[in-house]
Amino acid sequence: MRVSSRPQLRYTCDASLLNPALAHAFVELDADADTLAFVAELELRPTGALRAWMRRGLGGLMSDYDANALLDTHDMRVLGTEQWRTLLDDGARGRLLDLGAGDGRVTTTLAPLFDEVVTNELSKGMARRLRQRGYECWLGDLAEQALPESFGRFHVVCMLNLLDRCRRPRTLLSRARDLLEPEGRLIVAAPLPLSPHVHVGAHTVDPEELLPIERSSFEAAANRLAADLFEAQGLVTERWTRTPYLCRGDAHHPISSLDDAVFVLRLGSSPTT
Question: What is the pTM of this model?
């Protein structure tokens, strides 16, 4: 993770390094007022020394997610509501399922675009945070068990910075795809280049299913992810963007930042896997 007090907010891509389909689908956003306000807030109010010390201590006893849920140290941002609206081409509606929704802060930026929001978490602590925010939360691993039929299907399913943090990312992606309405869309955000690992209690392990990794550039990583994972699962990139994935740090490094690729995918040809 690149860490700095004032992160570079990267939104551009080198189109010459993208395959033609991705170059055509790219939507360039910018640092809107809400993002700049978020950065200023993190700079002014980083995680305090006591809470950071407690966070490090709990990290040896439980997963990062449970520790963050307990201490409320999971403040992060991907896009703002109007940026989501632009990326979705003002087409959001109906029902949203946010998989791996964390404490719900990112969910709240998407929620105004939908009539109904359902969330999902593996961490009991994060699930509790989501319910405190008023979201229905299904506690379970979609890659291991089916979503109860009572939840139905969704117009949009989100997997935001989850693909590289789960045991069976390919299975999770295919099951998320199968929860879409016929004209539905899947939103996948992933920091590129990928560095997959899975939190199991206080430890991290390698995933059971491998993801296509390309480290030469952000653009090359996006090309490979779209071709070798999404297209192989019958998903077409409708629109996508590059955005900073920001998270609250400590007094020494108030803000941590990753380069996120956010893909809006729709059902296309039959999957080959």
Answer: 0.89
Task: Note whether residue 258 is domain-resident.
Answer: yes
Residue-range definition of the domain harbouring residue 173: 2-267
Return per-residue pLDDT of the chain as tens, 273 residues.
Answer: 444 456 789 999 999 999 999 999 999 999 999 999 988 888 887 766 666 666 677 666 666 767 666 666 667 899 999 999 999 987 678 999 999 999 999 999 999 999 999 999 998 999 999 999 999 999 999 999 999 999 999 999 999 999 999 999 999 999 999 999 999 999 999 999 999 988 776 667 888 999 999 999 999 999 999 999 999 999 999 999 999 999 877 767 778 889 999 999 999 865 554
Peptide bond into 193 cis (omega under 30): yes
- Would you say 74 and 63 are in contact if contact means Cβ atoms under 8 Å apart? no
Residue 273 lies in a domain: no
- Cα dist. 28→2, 19, 25, 206, 245 in Å? 22, 16, 10, 33, 15
* Cα–Cα distance list, 32 to 3, 108, 261 (Å): 21, 17, 17
Q: Is 78 exposed, middle or buried, given 0-12, 13-18 or 19+ CB atoms closer than 10 A? A: buried
Phi, psi of 169 (to 5 degrees): -65, -35
Query: How many structural domains are present in the chain?
Result: 1
Structure tokens at 63: 């997963």
- 76-77 vs 198-200, strand pairing mode: unpaired
